[in-house]
Amino acid sequence: MGVETKNLRNVVLLGHSGSGKTLFAETMLFESGALTRRGTIEGQNTASDYTKLEQERGNSLFSALLHANWRDNKINIIDTPGYDDFVGEVISSLKVADTAVMIVNATSGVEVGTELLWEYVENYKTPGLFVINQLDHEKANYDTSLEQLKNNFGPKVMAVQYPLNPGTGFNTIIDALRMIMYVFPKEGGKPEKKPIPESEIGRATQMHQALVESAAENDESLMEKFFDEGSLNEHELAKGLTIALANQQIFPVFCASGKFNMGSGRIMGFLNDIAPSPLERPKPMSTKGEPIGADSTGPTRVFIYKTISEPQVGNVSYFKVFSGTLKTGDDLINLANSNHERINQIYVANGKTREAVNELKAGDLGVTVKLKETHTNNTLVTKGVESGIEPIHFPEPRIRVAVTPPNKADIDKLAKALHVTHEEDPTLIIEQSPELRQTLLYGQGQLHLDLIKYRIEKVYGVTMAFENPKIPYRETITKIANESYRHKKQTGGSGQFAEVHIRLEPYQEGMKDPDGLTVRNREYEKLPWGGTLAFYWCIVGGSIDTKFSSAIKKGVMNKMTEGPLTGSHCRDIRISIYDGKMHPVDSNDMAFQLAGTMAFKNAFQHAGPQLLEPIYDVSILCGSEFMGDVMGDLQTRRAIIMGMESEGHYQKILARVPLAELHDYSSTLRSITQGKAKFSMKLADYQQVPAEIQTKLVTEYQAHAHDEH
Ligand SMILES: Nc1nc2c(ncn2[C@@H]2O[C@H](COP(=O)(O)OP(=O)(O)O)[C@@H](O)[C@H]2O)c(=O)[nH]1
Ligand SMILES: [Mg+2]
């Protein structure tokens, strides 16, 4: 029998890298009895960091699914990586979690990672709590950490506990919810419960009162009771806190030392008693915009939040049962492609250890293997169900590199390896660019791409090298030019003849008709690479037959595709065909197409040709102390600063930066800020390339084009 939905707690551990998530997860498993001995990061033997790569690096790179039984309940725990490069793993974990536990390092307080990850918690409306961890550290500062949490995340942040003696020798926590003092033995574990000493009663009572008030605030009957009696009993308090937590009306703060195994038991107790089950949190939305309740007797909806590929096993799919009950032998339908999938095995997981079970009820997390055509973000449903789970939206990439073409023998192997890697990690995006004639990889940071390279070499035995990606420049014109071109050729008996007179103008939406020309027909071509080609037919008196119009346009488009300056795509040009000549026998489509190409090419050179480059909106969040360095670096990248604002003790900078100047930004920013910065980027616009850079690019292209002929 699967665990009842009301007895499930799905928890995701979040936090800046190094805050102690993985060790804390280990402690939770140990305290619950799921592990008989505690691993350490240094010992490379934790349940969560079970891949060789993570152990070597001493850092989580992938999310890990764990679970612990605690009294009546099963607590599913997902440990996540802290590095922003792996935020995809965090987002997919948040999608299936019902409570977020944000681990904060007491020696450094709120860090960039804390802030960025909290944004996701708020966006996902995930109930959340904080753990101020590493209180055993000599530099631990609880008060500052708590103050920073309140400053950054507002008055809903409320302490449940405080440490009596943070720092070396830490062993005592005052708990204002239970109004009790916990004193831990040297090796941690089960604390001794003692009355709160006289000297601390004042502070503890004040905290307790604040918790009771916020528990009462979110429920009318509790509110009444509170006004009548001035207090709530334990049961009412728990009920009120569950409602407040589930609706993000309170973010409680706890104390811990993962290293010395202090505090995790109480936090699991809180998750057990107070944290919402999948039934109590706001309902997630389906692809059809309807709320989906975690009803274990309803139709089955199984959502795949993560897929990995294991050497001996093949595809391993991590899922949440959003509704219904999943049983072995179930035949489900993948809503994304209508394929049938038979569920042969269902597992629960503790890192790499998997244990087979017969069924999982609504709300539970599990693993299955060997699905045929099912990927991350797909929903498997009972036949007849039409709405799935709204997919995870992964963040925009922040770095791009080109893959150096491998030797012939490896081309297919590499392509396959990249494909599988993308299936496992949707934040890796692969693009075959016909425009740049390169294979481009887009990812979340240098570390992200380096790791992908490392894994592909290890797992698939294909050597992979990166090179600088080319920039997708655009070409346009800045002034009017008139041009005529005559194509004439005599070969044997037949000949070719076409003559066109054209005018090129920079195109703008809503511009008036060309001076002195009578426009017969207007065509506006929205170009697949952005911008417009306006093609005007202004022939009076039939000097060219209208039937040649499309051949001329085709000729122009050929050159627009591979522009005269650097072979880049052209955009935002109006061409008016206003005169020409044809020959009754020798004129044909081919001749007019060629004439169109040549006339356009020549006119372009006289029309103030201009290269355009992609400009990105870049948003940077960094510690205020690095502000000067970050700004100084931006100045070397032809950046335009669009705004600055402070967010807590962080500084947010908005800038517009040419893509050509951004290729090493991810690693540079990391090194100048010692990792205390994050950024995002998004294509904003195309803008003129400065004259000296244009000259250089055009000269390079012309020299290269010359070589090729
Ligand atoms: N002193 C102390 N060190 C800790 C504590 N928790 C974790 N660490 C250390 O901090 C480092 C990072 O821990 P880890 O669990 O990998 O952090 P994560 O990146 O958040 O998963 C490791 O060297 C741990 O041994 C703690 O409570 N106290
Ligand atoms: Mg970790």
UniProtKB/TrEMBL annotation:
Domain Tr-type G: residue ranges: 6-279
GO biological process annotation, one example: ribosome disassembly
UniProt-listed Pfam families: EF-G_D2, EFG_C, EFG_III, EFG_IV, GTP_EFTU
CDD domains, A to Z: EF-G_bact, EFG_III, EFG_mtEFG1_IV, EFG_mtEFG_C
SMART domains cross-referenced by the UniProt entry: EFG_C, EFG_IV
Alphabetic keyword roster: Elongation factor, GTP-binding, Nucleotide-binding, Protein biosynthesis
Superkingdom classification of source: Bacteria
Single Gene Ontology MF annotation: translation elongation factor activity
Function: Catalyzes the GTP-dependent ribosomal translocation step during translation elongation. During this step, the ribosome changes from the pre-translocational (PRE) to the post-translocational (POST) state as the newly formed A-site-bound peptidyl-tRNA and P-site-bound deacylated tRNA move to the P and E sites, respectively. Catalyzes the coordinated movement of the two tRNA molecules, the mRNA and conformational changes in the ribosome.
UniProt-recorded name of the protein: Elongation factor G
Organism: Candidatus Opimibacter skivensis
